Amino acid sequence: IGLAAGHYYRRRPPIFVPPSFLADARWHILPSAATTTFRNVYTPEGRQQTVGPIARSIGPADIPPDCRNISLVHLCPLAQDVEAGVTRLFENSLLVTTPQGWLRQWDAAGIVSLGDWQGAAEILPKVQATVISIEDIEGNWAIAEKWAGQTSILIVTQDKEGCTVFYQGERLAVPPRPATPTDPTGAAMFLPPLFSSATTKQMTCGIRPILPTFLPR
Question: Where are the domains positioned within the chain?
Fold first, then answer.
């Protein structure tokens, strides 16, 4: 999409070697005794997910000053591992988030379930766009409507049904385009950078002209 990318995350040794198609990105690997690891099993009843081990969280002190004025920032926690205070660092950036990792809780066996997003009231007003899936909130549209009232743009992806965009009090349904699914894991992660890049380039056009072109459907 024409943007230079950089990634901050934690993992245990050995040194991470990115795949060839990501070789041009800047990788900032923060030390941790563990690497966050998920196991996904897809069943007719839905996805069953377990997590463990879990890396140390990333906080404001981990982000150097020269990275706090970049144009576009995507916060993508995995398992309660990005501190809410990080959002305060990027006052001059277009800040977007996929908060899935802030919604997760897990038991002693690592079985993941939906939990309360404790930092929502602090984080949502600071970000310009938030992307969740309908599975993240277990189909509860009341949660989406509440969060939509706290942030600029909320996008709810709905698998084969496309997505719903909440913007300035409106609720816009975006139908899907014909496609053949290849892997259901992480598909929504492509949406924030694509949508945010489009929004950055066409900010004066409003959101409606952007939706048909840039939202993966």
Answer: 65-214
The model's pLDDT over 152-205, given as tens digits with 9 standing for 90+, comes to 999 999 988 889 999 989 999 988 877 777 765 555 555 555 555 545 444 434
* Topology (CATH level 3) of domain 65-214: UDP-N-acetylmuramoyl-L-alanine:D-glutamate ligase (3.40.1190)
Token pair, residue 53, equals 């081990």
Report the candidate in 192, 139, 184 with the shortest Cα–Cα distance to residue 40: 184
Q: Give the number of other Cβ atoms within 10 Å of residue 104's Cβ.
A: 21
Q: Residue 20 is inside which H or E element, if any?
A: none
Residue among 122, 73, 126 nearest 102 (CA):
122
Looking at the whole model, is its pTM more than 0.70?
yes
Geometric angle at alpha carbon 81, from 79 and 87, rounded to 5°? 125
Q: Helix, strand or coil for residue 127?
A: coil
The position carrying tokens 């943007």 is 3
